[in-house]
User: Fold this.
Amino acid sequence: QVQLVESGGGLVQPGGSLRLSCAASGSIFRINAMGWYRQVLGKQRELVATRTSGGSAVYADSVKGRFTIPRESAKNTVDLQMNSLKPEDTAVYYCNAVLRHPATARLSDYWGQGTQVTVSS
Assistant:
């Protein structure tokens, strides 16, 4: 199996910055895409940012220009650099990886346990 472990969450004041990191371990095959989602209590999980194996990135409109997935990262990891944080960014952030098995070509979706990000004065 594949395990995704997030780190870097915490409490930050509005306008501050945090950097999240997600490390994948286990039976890692081909990474089709890897990125971040977030979820607020009582709300549906939403896309924050994701990067495909080809290097293209997609960002939610709400974070565009503030959040980035750095291209530099360790193998089987994905980071999320969050700048100019707002209270509305408060959520549990989940790492997501979509892996393709090299033999079957089937896609599998994996999720981390989540890390809390709280933006408050």
